[in-house]
Amino acid sequence: MTDNSPENNPSKPPAMEFGMFDHASQFTITQSTITVIGGNQINQSYMADSQKDLEWITAPNPFENFKIAYPKIIQGTGSWLLEDKLLQEWKTSNRQLLWLQGKAGTGKTFLCIIDSTLVVISQTDAEVGTHQNQTATVQSVQLAHPSMDSALAHEIICQECIIYLLCCGNVEIDVEKFALAHYAVKYWFLHSNQTKKESSVILDLSCKLLNTMQPAYQNWLTLYTPDTQSNKPESQKIAPPLYYACYTGLKSVVVYMLEHDDVDIYGKMNNLGGIYGNALQAASYEGHLEIVKLLLEKGADVNTLGGFCGNALQAASYKGHSEIVKVLLERRADVNAKGGSSGNALQAASISGHTEVVRILLENGADINAQQEYYGNALQAASQYGHLEIVISLIEKGADVTAKAGGYYGSALAAASSSGYLQVVKILLEKGADVNVQGGWYGNALQAASSRGHMNIVEVLIENRADVNAEGGHYKSALIAASFEGYTKVVRALLERGADVSVCGILLGDVLQAASNQGHLELVRVLLENGADLNAQGGLSGSALQTASYQGHLEVVQVLIAKGADVNASQQRYVNPLQAARSRGHSDIVAALLEAGANDTTPFQSVGQIAGHKPDFPYKFASLPPVTALQRNLS
């Protein structure tokens, strides 16, 4: 006869009944009845306004050690439990589990010590950890005990968390009403993964929760979505349960779902959904090798495109899971497939600094000079994040260090210069990188370094014959970049090398306008001393005085007026400095301009009325690369 019991057939979860928790009730998991005892009483007879009292009533940290918590106990707390007839019945019954619920301070926080399949009540009035027999009078109940099997503890906690979610999650979970919800939603699957052996009870509970027909599934993900940065849903379409079983590493659950293949309940293996697109990519990203193998054996498409990383190979490469990378390549994953936040697998590994994965990918035919939109190529990606060993390896394997790589920075040298990686800059220059190659957001490497204030890199680039007057990029020139961002030392170094103060950009105007826009008083003085044109017109601001007036930089306005700036110079966007100051409500600057002879006959126009005005200009322009979704995981 076939034994279909849960103990001998772990792939087949047994039936289960649930009931909402009452003050005192029971519900059943498989063959085990759980007795529920609720307590809302806080012992009052010994209450006083002492710090100890407050410490005991305050709900303890879930990771707090019992030896720390035990001295805080107030005599008499928990008497509601000891006097409850259900406890007495439970002690003499064959039921395995006891569930406590109650308000903070009632003494409920972890009751049980698990010994095999029985819950053992321990007396601790003499010494923490002194076991009495099960029939002894219970004086207090332990939180934990050094002799307790940690894997078994994880198993019990996991069961309790899932039961809590199933019972509370039939409707939207009210975290104010159900205080354990925040813990349960975050940690149930982590506790599951810490158990030593497969548990039919946990399998059963997990499959009940990971079920599209179960309201608790959606309510769990609403309260805590494990694969998103915010841990909140980022789409109205919820990924199928199989996806989350793979993402969280629940191997036995994945086995069960794949064997039963109920697409209505668990979803299809190659279904698109979730941040990582599909189950294989999710498992690859999180490093669950055995689950990856299971999915591939069951026919998962190794090259399915979609999701945050583009495909499974990119996901594993980005996280540095070399064994998974090997398995995917053995299953004919396309090593040069494009897509996702990284561009391709080689760039993904280069971004994250995984030297071994880079080696594996190159040995399996990865195109070392493949071009992609944001990172340009693998060399630029590695240079941007300062992975010197990978930079050297890529160059030795044939990466074109002189390539105009495209991407955000335009070249590996500009990427390293912007990010401030001096050793990478030196290596690239030693290997023949063109110091004056044009392209990307910053135009060239010198402008990139100047905009970020990397003085040591500016000096190295100039020593290697960088053109201090090269034009292009966001700021137009390195001097305008350093002036706008306020790096006085860099400005002085560029001026000493002959940087032209008269260069004028379409957006920021010249160097004096750039410094005035941001209120860099010292720089304004330095630039004036070095021949900057006080009344130069250009850019969206019109003049240095006009942009300083608009931005509210009184001291800069005073210096410019003292040096002879034309207070009545007109420019279409803001009409004149007086109008610019009035449009923003800078009364102190209005007074300074009037005192200096500003013409007050022009009818006032509000900021919204000024011809061509853009309300958000001239606020600080973006000087850093746009934050991609990928970068959120690099910190």
From TrEMBL:
<feature type="repeat" description="ANK">
    <location>
        <begin position="341"/>
        <end position="373"/>
    </location>
</feature>
<keyword id="KW-0040">ANK repeat</keyword>
<dbReference type="Pfam" id="PF24883">
    <property type="entry name" value="NPHP3_N"/>
</dbReference>
<feature type="domain" description="Nephrocystin 3-like N-terminal">
    <location>
        <begin position="76"/>
        <end position="112"/>
    </location>
</feature>
<feature type="repeat" description="ANK">
    <location>
        <begin position="408"/>
        <end position="440"/>
    </location>
</feature>
<dbReference type="Pfam" id="PF12796">
    <property type="entry name" value="Ank_2"/>
</dbReference>
<dbReference type="Pfam" id="PF00023">
    <property type="entry name" value="Ank"/>
</dbReference>
<dbReference type="InterPro" id="IPR036770">
    <property type="entry name" value="Ankyrin_rpt-contain_sf"/>
</dbReference>
<keyword id="KW-0677">Repeat</keyword>
<dbReference type="InterPro" id="IPR002110">
    <property type="entry name" value="Ankyrin_rpt"/>
</dbReference>
<protein>
    <recommendedName>
        <fullName>Nephrocystin 3-like N-terminal domain-containing protein</fullName>
    </recommendedName>
</protein>
<dbReference type="InterPro" id="IPR056884">
    <property type="entry name" value="NPHP3-like_N"/>
</dbReference>
<feature type="repeat" description="ANK">
    <location>
        <begin position="444"/>
        <end position="473"/>
    </location>
</feature>
<feature type="repeat" description="ANK">
    <location>
        <begin position="374"/>
        <end position="406"/>
    </location>
</feature>
<feature type="repeat" description="ANK">
    <location>
        <begin position="278"/>
        <end position="307"/>
    </location>
</feature>
<feature type="repeat" description="ANK">
    <location>
        <begin position="311"/>
        <end position="340"/>
    </location>
</feature>
<feature type="repeat" description="ANK">
    <location>
        <begin position="540"/>
        <end position="572"/>
    </location>
</feature>
<feature type="repeat" description="ANK">
    <location>
        <begin position="474"/>
        <end position="506"/>
    </location>
</feature>
<feature type="repeat" description="ANK">
    <location>
        <begin position="512"/>
        <end position="539"/>
    </location>
</feature>
